[in-house]
Amino acid sequence: MKRIILLMVVALVLTACGQGKSNTLSKKNPNEELPASIEEVEITIAATTDEEAVQLIRSYVADELEEKAYSGLYLEHEPFKHFVILIQELYPLEDVADDIGKYSLQMGKGEGEYRVKLKSATFSYLTLEKVANQLNTSHEALIVTERPVLSFGINEMENRIDLYVSNREDLNEELLAEITVGNEGIVRIEEGVMGSVDEQGIPTAQPYIVGNIMEEKEAENLVFLIDNQIYVLVNSATVIKDQNGNTIGAEQLNVGDKVAVWTDGGIEESLPASGYAVAIQLQ
């Protein structure tokens, strides 16, 4: 991958809905005493298919729901197939449910009874997008080692941003704290294969490939072709070991050597594929 700083958006169950033109719901007054909030409400809307239901929900969010109230949308199949609409926790679910029910009767198909759940969420989708955009803007400063592996995306189902790094030590956590200030818990950090290594510093996960070095290229970066299947980029942060677990330099790897290669981040699905080698061991 070109330089392999991966700004991949994690696959979402559904893309974000459009946001509010008119605002019919207002958030709770923080000074008034309120009863315990309800965390989940189930309703039916006037739709008969998945497509009709999601179109109706998107139209409601775009036309009627206050922008800061919307937190996400996804499809669940258990215990029955239904859409889940996430509503930011300052907005009463009962009010939203009543409002979407009325909108459904006006705009949907009256004979349909598609089941929908509304659930409370901590962060609005607006906040998730804001933080994701800040991560995108700051991505080069977020990695403090030479392992160029960083990916992140909005996880609507869990109402957070999942951020993936090869190893937590690669991450500028002070900068991350600045980006997420006031929104603690909005980012979950996931470590890649270098998050778990043995006593020799080799990943405990299975290697991506075990094969022979077929070709070596050196231009801006050092690249090895393994078994004509994948080009792997190597830099000074790549962990390289001999058969006994001793650290060696990339110059000690030669065409014809059999190696185990661990990759992290995305793999470019070309022919051959290409990716970043976080660790290599001679076999």
Which descriptors apply to this entry?
283 residues; alpha/beta; GMP Synthetase, Chain A, domain 3; five-stranded mixed β-barrel; four-stranded mixed beta sheet; disordered N terminus
Averaged pLDDT, please? 87
Radius of gyration equals: 24 Å
Shape: elongated
Number of strands: 13
As laid out across the biggest beta sheet, the strand order is 8-9-10-13-12
Number of helices: 5
Unreliable sequence segments: 1-35
Largest sheet: 5 strands, mixed, barrel
Q: Span from first to last CA?
A: 26 Å
From N to C, what is the helix and strand string? EHEEHEHHEEHEEEEEEE
Detailed description of the structure:
The protein has 283 residues and is of the alpha/beta class. The chain folds into three domains: 2-9 and 125-195, 2-Layer Sandwich (GMP Synthetase, Chain A, domain 3); 40-121; 209-282. Helix content is 19%, strand content 31%. The chain has helices spanning 50-63, 93-107, 125-137, 139-142, 173-179, and strands spanning 40-45, 70-76, 82-88, 114-121, 150-155, 160-165, 187-191, 209-218, 222-226, 230-234, 239-241, 258-268, 273-282. Strands 8-9-10-13-12 form a five-stranded mixed beta barrel. A hairpin with a 3-residue loop joins strand 8 (209-218) and strand 9 (222-226). The longest helix has 15 residues, at 93-107.
